[in-house]
Design brief:
879 residues, alpha/beta, six-stranded mixed β-sheet, 60% helix
Length: 879
């Protein structure tokens, strides 16, 4: 029936005429439902739209005569499915989700015994359609969640088509992993799907061409050109047939020839692919056409044909932007990529002003896209993919800066800020939005319940895989996304506050910096490191060439400094070289004793205080603190905690811990109790030791204290950073995971993690280290003292005692830590403890304002004056 479009139309019309003559509503509905499948195969969107309109009017009539339908619900769900597919094809994802959710709702409440095999297949396909929608929208983790749900659904049902249905999952997972550039995984899934199709379903030509196209793409990325050529030959007979995906053959052949450097027919192949695409879409604006034009433009760029490349880029933009184009997220994402490409072309043509203009436009588009991404992993990927935009923008502003063009450094600082800490800023703004966005308390409580339920289910799955928990988690996350959409639609002030995309400016930062403070912001790109340094009166912009030798030097230094057995002379020699490269270009121009560093990339692993100039560590002349972005620092400084009471924990450990994922030896920390008792001399509060230092006591009490000190073990999970943890004992129930921190509500001015590797985490572009320490910012901490590697328990106790002593005197946090380190170095100058391993692991980040507004020495002076006054009065009394 579906091999010839004209024949399909003929038989459809005969059935419609017969149904109308017999006044048979049931037969009319069946005819339109079957016709929908044909329209999708032949990509006839006009006919599909007309069919759906007819069905819109027929179903209300049919519902009155429901008894005549044996399979009414299956037919209606098929109608919802077809509407969703049409919505996706026309980029109305919101309506698509509504229609698919109707199918899922029915499936959830209907016993399996009442479902036919074809109905089960329809429900499964609907999960795949939702996955396709999210994949189109670059929300890949959500797409994979729906595909995994599809697998669980298939495995839980009695169906005759299990292998066929699972093959559909393989096909889509292959496509997703290709988009994620995980080509080995992509090849695994796509090859499985393709082999199945070649064996069992070769007549489905659209599916076959798609699978071959993805397979060829994967082999090209893996540079396995013989395999790519072999699979491309499989679809050569289909290239010029009248099928919607025939253009993919020519697009694949162009890519293969480009990889093989056979340039003769590439332009012809792209022209042919575009001819078939235009025929397919019959003059409509379509993202498929834009993506092919983008590939064509990339080829022209690689051959230095910039004017032609710009022409294809401009043509592509007309398909995803303009008055007659749907303003969908997939069009916006494609437009963002095209603006990246346009900026690259302008960069190659040395048109810096054009690059900057495109970078600003792309940045505004990125701000529009971010709220659509509810999933953190997908949002991180979006930001990472945007990094090249900022790097091109910074290179162009640097060119203008060197040409003494006005506002160049302001442009550079704007791009620096836009590239940093999107998720962390969004989390802080979300708390502010709940407070000032007029959200009723019961809604805030409901959101907390959702978040806690998701975290608890994820923790259980992290320990043991279980399909029941997976389905529960899937349902809760789906409900939570719907809840958030409703919240943001109903409370506009909340939405505007939460997604406020403004970043601070140089002028604002200079106004708020203290006279003795400088700020140095880095951007770690693919080809260069860019940095802007400023104090109250000056701004400078520098570029540091990035090459393999510098990256190796940074990695070597991180390895050297985190090992106490490293030769000190070799370490200091490397530290001096890094100072010359990374800091000298800036500190030779702006030299203030307090230095705030905004790190990026591999620089996150470097404690800058340990770099060396003229045989002196930087800590000897600078009090250094760290922050992810100047905008984040401004938010933290706006938060005020009036409490300076202390909550300190020193759990006991007895050896191994086993949490169903990994066993870990947690050795006793003999100095931890002394550490918190020393701190208690300077700040009064609650010391919890041994069994009292429990996770339950932490969760119960932490929000009531302004200073939180945790002298315990931190374990970094390099496979899944969300499940790095702080240990409050030896049981699995004593672990505080990074994921738990997102659900806490602290009011702490300072959180100190006197624990191994609490500041280490997976490095994500634009977000920095996804560490335990960073997690406490999500909880509400204003500043965090953490460690960059496994530290010595005894040296930690000494440093922390001096740190809090200095804080009690009213010193700022960065100065207090600097002085504690200097004292430690002085006391140990003649022994091995002078090695930077023992003192430079501790860093302070965030708001470094003093904990106390009254200086310690004033209290001492007041005490002396009081005693003197009492003495004089007593003497007078005796006289």
């Amino acid at each position: 029936m579906y091999t010839n479009q004209d024949s399909t139309q003929l038989y459809k019309q005969k059935l419609l005429d017969l149904s109308v003559n017999q006044n048979n509503v049931e037969q009319l509905i069946y005819t339109y439902i079957v016709s929908n499948k044909s329209t999708l195969i032949f990509n006839n969107m006009d006919e599909l739209e007309n069919n759906l309109k007819k069905l819109d009017s027929l179903f209300p009539v049919a519902e009155k005569e429901i008894e005549v339908f044996n399979d009414f619900h299956e037919v209606k769900n098929s109608y919802f499915h077809d509407k969703a597919v049409f919505n996706i094809k026309t980029y109305n994802y919101k309506k698509a989700k509504i229609n698919l959710d109707k199918i899922f709702k029915y499936a959830k409440k209907t016993p399996d015994s009442l479902l036919t095999d074809s109905h089960r297949g329809l429900i499964d396909v609907s999960y795949k359609v939702m996955a396709k929608m999210y994949s189109n929208n670059k929300e890949y983790e959500l797409a994979i969640q729906y595909l995994d749900k599809s697998i669980r659904f298939i495995n839980s049902k009695n169906t005759d088509h299990k292998e066929y249905l699972i093959n559909g999952v393989n096909r889509q997972k292959g496509d997703i992993y290709k988009k994620l550039k995980d080509y080995k995984k992509a090849t695994y899934f796509t090859t499985k799907a393709l082999n199945y199709t070649l064996k069992h379903n070769k007549s489905n030509t659209n599916q076959l061409i798609n699978e071959v196209y993805n397979t060829v793409d994967n082999y090209l990325a893996l540079k396995q050109y013989d395999s790519a050529s072999y699979y491309l030959e499989q679809i050569k007979p289909l290239a010029d047939t009248n099928i919607p995906y025939g253009f993919l053959y020519y697009k694949s052949r162009a890519k293969l020839n480009e990889a093989l450097n056979n340039t003769e027919s590439i332009q012809e192949d792209y022209d042919k692919a575009l001819e078939l695409l235009n025929r397919k879409w019959n003059g409509l604006k379509q993202v498929e056409i834009a993506e092919t034009l983008q590939s064509y433009s990339n080829f022209l760029i690689s051959n230095n044909q910039y004017n032609q490349a710009l022409k294809q880029n401009a043509a592509a933009i007309t398909h995803v932007s303009g008055k007659d184009v749907v303003n969908s997220s997939i069009n916006q994402i494609t437009l963002f990529k095209l603006l990246q490409q346009k900026a690259l072309i302008a960069m190659r043509q040395n048109q810096s002003d054009s690059v900057i203009k495109n970078t600003y436009q792309a940045t505004r588009l990125l701000d529009t896209l971010k709220p659509h991404f509810k999933n953190k992993t997908d949002k991180l990927l979006l930001i990472e993919n945007a990094y090249s935009v900022f790097e091109n923008g910074l290179q162009a502003t640097y060119n203008n800066y060197k040409s003494n063009k006005k506002n160049a450094v302001n442009d550079a600082f704007f791009f620096l800020e836009k590239s940093k800490s999107t998720l962390l800023l969004e989390a802080l703004l979300s708390v502010k939005a709940e407070k000032f966005g007029a959200i009723p308390n019961e809604i805030i409580i409901k959101e907390d319940i959702y978040k806690n339920t998701i975290t608890n289910l994820e923790k259980q799955l992290n320990q043991k895989q279980n399909d029941v928990f997976k389905d529960q988690l899937f349902d809760v996350k789906s409900n939570y996304r719907t809840f958030l959409d409703t919240l943001e639609n109903n409370y506009k002030d909340y939405y505007n506050l939460k997604y406020n995309a403004e970043v601070t400016t140089i002028k604002t930062v200079q106004k708020e910096l203290k006279p003795s403070t400088a700020m140095l912001s880095f951007f770690y790109g693919n080809d260069a490191i860019y940095g802007v340094i400023l104090d109250q009166d000056n701004t400078y912009f520098e570029k540091i060439e990035l090459n393999q030798a510098l990256e190796q030097q940074l990695r070597l230094f991180q390895k050297q400094i985190s090992n106490p057995k490293t030769d000190i002379l070799s370490l200091k020699n490397n530290a001096a070289k890094l100072y010359t490269i990374l800091l000298a270009p800036f500190l030779d121009k702006v030299n203030q004793p307090n230095l705030i560093i905004l790190t990026d990339g591999l620089l996150n692993y470097i404690p800058f205080e340990s770099l060396v100039k003229d045989n002196h560590y930087l800590v000897e002349n600078y009090a250094v603190s760290y922050i992810n972005s100047a905008t984040l620092l401004k938010e933290l400084e706006n938060k005020k905690s009036r409490k300076n009471n202390l909550l300190a924990f020193a759990p006991e450990f007895e050896g191994d811990i086993y949490n169903s994922v990994r066993s870990k030896s947690l050795q006793p920390l003999p100095h931890s109790k002394v550490e918190i008792q020393n701190i208690n001399q300077y700040y009064k509060g609650n010391l919890l030791i041994n069994k009292d230092a429990s996770l339950e006591n932490f969760k119960t009490n932490a929000s009531d204290y302004g200073i939180i000190h945790l002298a315990t073990h931190a374990i970094f999970n390099d496979t899944n950073p969300e499940y790095s943890y702080l240990a409050f004992g030896n049981e699995a129930s004593d672990l505080l995971y990074t994921a738990d921190l997102y659900n806490l509500n602290l009011n702490a001015n300072l959180v100190t993690l006197s624990a191994c590797e609490s500041g280490i985490g997976n490095l994500k572009r634009g977000e920095g280290l996804l560490s335990l320490a960073r997690g406490f910012y999500f909880s509400g901490a204003q500043s965090i003292s953490s460690t960059l590697w496994k530290i010595n328990d005894a040296s930690s106790a000494t440093l922390m005692s001096d740190f809090y002593k200095n804080l009690s005197k009213g010193q700022s946090k960065d100065l207090a830590l600097q002085q504690a380190k200097l004292n430690f170095i002085k006391q140990n100058k003649d022994n091995a403890l002078s090695h930077p391993y023992y003192w430079s692991a501790f860093i302070i980040s965030g708001n470094t304002e003093p904990l106390t507004s009254t200086h310690y020495w004033l209290w001492v002076l007041a005490g002396i004056l009081l005693l003197a006054t009492l003495g004089i009065l007593l003497k007078k009394y005796k006289n």
